[in-house]
Amino acid sequence: MAESLDGWVMADNLRPFLELLARYAEYAFDDTDWDTVALGLEHTDDDDPGAWYAYPLAGARARLDVDVAVAVGADVVSVRVTGLVERELRLRAATLLDAYGRSRRGAPVPPRPAGVSPAGARGGPGSGRSPASRSTGSG
Question: Where is the composition biased (Low complexity) (predicted)?
Answer without folding.
Answer: 128-139
